[in-house]
Amino acid sequence: MSEYVSAKAARRAEEEKARKERKKYNAIVGAVAGVIVLMILFVALFGSNLFYNGTAALEIGGTKFTVADFNYNYFSSYNSYYNSVYSYSGTIGDPSAMLPSTEEPLRTQAYLGSEDMTWADFFENSAIERMKSVAMLTSAAEEEGYTLSDEEKASVEETITGLAASAVSNGYKDLDAYLTINYGKGMTEKVFRENLLRDALASSYSQHKLDSSTFTQEELTAYYAEHADENDYFKFRIYSFSGAAVTDDADTEEDETLSAEDAAAKAQADADAFLAAVTDEQSFIDYAASLNEDTEDYDADSTTLRTSQGSSITEVVRTWLVEDGRKAGDKAVVRSAEDAAIPYYYVVYYLDRDNNAYNAFSGYYGLVSAAPTVEGGGDPDAASLKTYREGNAKMVLDSYIEADGKGLDTFSEVINNATDLISGSGALTTTGIYDVPQVLADWFSDPARQEGDTEILYDEDYGAFVVYFSQIDGVYADLLSEAKLKSDAYDAWEEAQMANYETVTRHWQMGLSKKLASMGG
Predict the structure, then answer these.
(1) 3-state DSSP call for residue 383?
(2) How far apart are alpha carbons 377 and 387 in whole angstroms?
(3) pTM value?
(4) Within 13 Å, how many C-alpha atoms sit on residue 148's CB side?
C-alpha cells in the first residue's frame, strides 16, 4: 500500500511539474506574441501618417498641435530665420556667421556661441512661441465669431495650387511628396491647408484687432504733443570728426600714430575750427567740401544735409536740436555720449523743424531708370537719358490709358506687367512727404490732386516715375499718433491674452517630433 501511495504521489508531482512548464511556456509564447503584435502596430502606426497627423505632440491653451503641426511651425520658423538673415545681409556683413553649419545636425551645434542652447533648441523655441501666438489669436477669433473672408480663403487656395504646380514642375510626384520632403512625414495637402488657414486666421484677426481701436481727435493731438520730439522732422547740416585712436601705416614714411586721448583732442580741435568757419549754410557746405577735395565724387551739399525724424537722430544731436528757442542758423559742436567707445564730435547747423501738419496720401508708382545704349560706348548725356526714360514711361502710361478698366487695381496691374520697362514699383500707403523723392512729394501733396490722376514725373537721381493718385488719408501727425496708440493698445491686449498661453503641455510624441525636426543645418 505504501508503495502504491508513493507511486501515486510521484505521478502527481510529475503532472504538476508538467503543468507549470506548460504555463510558463504559454506565458512566454503570449509575451512574445504580444511583442510581435506591438511591433506590428508600431510599424503600422509610424509607417503611416496616423502618428504624425493624428496624435497631439503638444497642447497650448486648449489648442492641440500634432507632430505634423509642430514640424510645420518648426520649418516655418527655420525658413523665416534664414530669410530674415539674408534680407539684412547688407547691414550685418557675412550672413553665414549668423547661421548654423550645414555639415552637422542642428542638435549638436551651439546657437551663436551659447553654452546652454543648440540650434535645434533655438528653432524649437521659435516654433513653440509661434504656436503660442497662433493658438491665442485663433482662439480669440473663434470666441468673437471672426472668420476669414472669401478672398482670404481663396488666397490660401491659390498658394496651394501654385505650390502644387511648382512641385510637379520640379520633379515631385505630387504636392504630398513635396510636402513630406520639406515638412516631414505626415504633412499632407490636407494638413498643410489646415495650417495655412490657421496662420491666415491668426494674421487676419491680429490686423482686425489692431484696427479696432479708435481714438478721439483730442487724444491724437495730446499724444503727438507729448511725443513731438520723436515724431517731428528736422532739417539740418551735420559733419562728424572721429576721435578713434590711429595706428601707424607701415606703407607710409610718416608716423600717423595717435593715442585715444590725442585723437579725441584732435577731433575736438578740428570740429571747433569747422564751427568757427561757419557763418551761414553755404559756408558750412564750402568748408565740408574743402576737407574732401581729394575725395572723388564727394558732394558736400547732399552729404551734409539731413531731413530726419527725431526718433532716428543720434540722441545727443536730437537733444540739441529740440532745445527751446532753437532757430534757423544756430550752430554748435556736439560731443557723443561720455560712455561711447569712440568719441565723436558733430558740427551741427540748424535749418528747420516740421510738425507733420500736412495731408498724407496714397497712390502707386512705377520707375523707369534704365539707360539707352550709346553707340561707341560711354554714358548718354542728361538730355538723351531724360528723353529715353520719359519715352518708356509714356508707353507704360499709354498702356493704362488704353486698358479696359480704370482705377488703382488696373494701374498696378499694368505697372507690374511692364517688367521690360519698369525697374521698380510699389504702393504708396499713408505716405508722408519725407518718405518719397521731392518730385513725388510735390505732385502727390498738391491740393488740386484728384483720385485717379496720373502723370509722368522726372528726377535726375532716380529716373522717370509713372504715378497714380489714390486719395488723401488725413493729417500725417494724426496718423502717426493713431498708429502708435493702436500699436500700444494691441500690445497691451496681446500681453494680457498671452498670459493664458504660457503653459505648454508636451506629450510623449513631442520627444520624437523634436528628433524628427532636428535635422542638419
Answers:
(1) helix
(2) 18
(3) 0.80
(4) 19
Q: Cell numbers 502710361 correspond to what residue? A: 397
User: Which CATH fold would you assign to the domain 56-212?
Assistant: Triger factor/SurA peptide-binding fold (1.10.4030)
Instruction: Give yes or no for a contact between 237 and 348, defined as CB atoms under 8 angstroms apart.
Output: yes
What nine digits make up the cell of 504? 505648454
DSSP calls for 435-482: SS-HHHHHHHT-TT--TT-EEEEEETTTEEEEEEEEEEEEEHHHHHHH
Rounded to 5°, angle at Cα 149 from 145 and 154? 140
> Which residue in 474, 484, 472 sits closest to 231, CA to CA?
484
Nearest to 346, CA basis, from 332, 360, 364: 332
- pLDDT tens digits for 374-389? 887 788 999 999 999 9
Please tell us whether the domain made up of 359-478 is placed in CATH 3.40.50.970.
no
Distance CA 353, CA 231 (A): 11
- Tens digits of per-residue pLDDT, 496-517? 999 999 999 988 667 656 555 5
- Is 169 in a helix, a strand, or coil? helix
Return d(Cα 131, Cα 4) in angstroms, integer: 81
Q: Sign of the C-alpha dihedral, residues 372, 374, 378, 382? A: negative
Which DSSP symbol is given to 202?
H
* Helix (H) or strand (E) run with residue 348 in it: strand 344-354
Q: DSSP for 33-49?
A: HHHHHHHHHHHHHHHSS
Length of the chain: 521
